[in-house]
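Task: complex structure prediction.
Instruction: return structure tokens for all chains below.
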Amino acid sequence: MKELKRENGLVILRFDKGEDLMENLTGWLEEQGIQSAAILGGIGMLSHMEIGRYDGREYSKITENESCEILSLQGSVSMKEGKPFVHLHVSFADHDFHAIGGHLFSGTVSMTIEMVIAPMSPGLVRKPMGGVFWQMDS
Amino acid sequence: MKELKRENGLVILRFDKGEDLMENLTGWLEEQGIQSAAILGGIGMLSHMEIGRYDGREYSKITENESCEILSLQGSVSMKEGKPFVHLHVSFADHDFHAIGGHLFSGTVSMTIEMVIAPMSPGLVRKPMGGVFWQMDS
Amino acid sequence: MKELKRENGLVILRFDKGEDLMENLTGWLEEQGIQSAAILGGIGMLSHMEIGRYDGREYSKITENESCEILSLQGSVSMKEGKPFVHLHVSFADHDFHAIGGHLFSGTVSMTIEMVIAPMSPGLVRKPMGGVFWQMDS
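Output:
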């Protein structure tokens, strides 16, 4: 993973083949002391993605092992139980170019991922609302 | 609805369960006097969404009542007939994680929506181009 | 194509009916001397889109000729062989509102496209990694 550019409040990150996207992103946030951020975009390819859909009580999950084109990444960074928490939703294309997506739990970078993130000063936190639902607050 | 953070030209908004997304967003824009903006992202869950697809003359519409994971929100704010107009396109995941989307007419927040918006000084306007088509201009 | 607004590091571009999206965007980047940028969003409609999916060796491609609602555009601008190169991924809705997407090679604006781009100082470059894969670097 490499920080390619930082300007006008935006950072361009590049993740490399074989990297765990969430682990590497969270590690970079911790190193940089970034507790709050908006994740504005991300394209490239991911494999071994675990994505979820919340049913009001819990997440139903599926795994996509194949390497897929990422169509969009959007999300946020806030503090949850003292650590930076990445809340990220993904859409990606399957074999036939059909889009699939959900809440991204994990994924492995295949080829490359180019991400745009806007780090902010501390202030965004995640508060428990019952069950697995933690709401972003300030 | 709550403004969680405003920094580097970006505002993080959180919408809460049961809120009408468009009404609340438009109300906030009017309160703040925001006439132009870029809507850079939004994730969370929406239900009772009305989405459309323009056929060159009019919108064909469908309604999704179930609570769905929002994969992406992108759009703009401009002035149309003296009021801030939200032009927003959405993609969301159905039961089987398949993505569906279109022009978002309305939707009810289920659980939460986290939105990233970049307010700008006035200047973006929407001009009638014939039929239901209004083009953004300055 | 028209630049509607430039503020806080963001530019709002509007592309018009019949324009070639990639040619017009690349032409504008060259005129402006923009060598690096983040493409943060884009909505509207495109037709005659050629999209691809990388299989690790080459791109398999499909063409969508019909006019489709664009759900999201995300990407980057970097220098490749001395020219600004647009790396853009798209998701769009088909007849039945189902989302389709991939790496966008080309497309014709139908109705309008509203794009949000964050120009940056020079520094992002694309380096050959073997085959058709060029990785963004700095």
